[in-house]
Design brief:
408 residues; alpha+beta
């Protein structure tokens, strides 16, 4: 009997998915576990596998097009089987309804794959097997210069066995056409699902929550000395790890910043889950360090590193980015001195952290060179008042300027 494959909901923010490429065509035999298509969600690019045996009878959307959650992707059944009744009986698509795939994990199997998507349009997308792409990424091979030997010019493992990264780089340089001096040019890139979600969520936050901003400076001399002492003792952590610990400790003294606006009520969270913004080519993701106040700096450092690695390789899961009660955005490593950040829903606050800067300071009536870091707290004025925000920043400053006392 023919079965309908629907677009599954893979995260709480997903409303649609884009078909990157189909790996089967109508009339092809399909076995359980066969790769049917690649789907780009708002979190990552995934592989869609078949969950039964049969023939691919129908494809509901062509490559490069989007389909809403619960929309029909394909129909698999016996060869020649009449599937018209299934299409006619298809209900109106409700992207907020749970799909069969999310209710029964045996129906649709999806796995993470890393694909370069920032500069390749749907019409020019490289046709290559996941294994070939993995080999190319490992060896630094440019797939644009490789001619595939499989069906429809698809690149497979054997096409890469005798190719070196140097050869492909030379081929790319030779093939590149020189641009005329003074000629106008531009590139238009279709928004990824991740970029769409970032734009929607931040626009809603910026225009819905009445933001106000409070900035404070901290003398980081003691923090720098503390970090060096810890490194000498074999305990290594970044300033961002120390910041997460200091923020969690300050929240304990000022719990009202650890809250959410829910329309007709305010939720004051008793647990502290810190979201840490991680930059990617396509935008920001915010993995969440849960119960951050209960963890040591070493534990925070290890977990943060794992999240960064998963984010960079697009292996981060939706569950890793849920549950935040407060968010930190640190741009100090980019030589940024000071900035303001848009609140990350459902949080009521987000902390923007700048670089540690050498600057003249006055200490005990004398001018000396100090190491100062600026921090700006963005707050939802419906939830947090100025006195609460400034009190939190004062405690955070004290934690950073006396890190040993904070840990005690």
């Amino acid at each position: 009997m023919a079965e309908v494959i629907q677009m599954p909901r893979m995260s709480d923010t997903m409303t649609e998915g884009v078909i990157v490429a189909w790996h089967k065509k109508i009339g092809d035999k399909v076995k359980s576990g066969d790769l049917l298509a690649e789907v780009e969600t708002d979190k990552a690019t995934m592989e869609l596998e078949s969950y039964n045996d049969g023939t691919l009878l129908y494809i509901g959307v062509e490559a490069g097009k989007a389909v809403a959650v619960n929309g029909i992707l394909a129909i698999v059944g016996a060869a020649g089987e009449d599937y018209a009744a299934l299409l006619n009986a298809a209900p109106t698509v409700d992207p907020n309804a749970p799909t069969a795939a999310t209710e029964n994990k045996q129906e649709v199997v999806l796995s993470n794959v890393s694909h370069p998507t920032s500069h390749i349009s749907s019409d020019d997308r490289i046709k290559a097997s996941p294994l070939a792409k993995a080999i190319a990424a490992e060896k630094g091979i440019d797939l644009h210069s490789i001619k595939g030997s499989a069906d429809n010019g698809r690149i497979v493992k054997r096409d890469l066995e005798n190719v070196s990264a140097v050869e492909t780089q030379v081929a790319s340089i030779v093939a590149a056409a020189p641009m005329m001096a003074g000629a106008e040019s531009f590139e238009e890139v279709t928004l990824s699902q991740m970029r769409k979600t970032i734009a929607r969520r931040l626009s809603e936050s910026n225009f819905t929550a009445p933001h106000f901003f409070v900035t404070i400076e901290a003398n980081m001399a003691n923090a720098m000395a503390f970090r060096k002492q810890a490194a000498d003792a074999g305990i290594k952590f970044s300033f961002n790890d120390l910041m997460i610990k200091a923020v969690a400790s300050a929240i304990r003294k000022h719990p009202k910043v650890n809250s959410s606006w829910l329309g007709d009520k305010i939720r004051y969270n008793h647990h502290i889950h810190i979201g840490m913004a991680v930059g990617m080519d396509e935008g920001l993701v915010v993995p969440v360090l849960k119960f951050a106040d209960q963890k040591s700096i070493s534990q925070i450092s290890m977990e943060a590193k794992q999240f960064v690695e998963k984010a960079k390789s697009k292996k981060i899961q939706p569950a890793d980015m849920q549950g935040n009660t407060f968010t930190i955005s640190n741009m100090g490593m980019f030589d940024v001195e000071n900035f303001t950040a848009i609140i990350n829903p459902p949080d009521a606050c987000i902390l923007a952290v700048g670089k540690i800067k050498e600057t003249p300071i006055v200490e005990n009536g004398e001018i000396k060179i100090g190491h100062v870091m600026k921090m700006t707290l963005s707050s939802d004025h419906r939830v947090v008042d100025g006195s609460i925000a400034s009190g939190f920043l004062k405690s955070l400053k004290e934690n950073l300027e006396n890190p040993a006392m904070m840990l005690i």
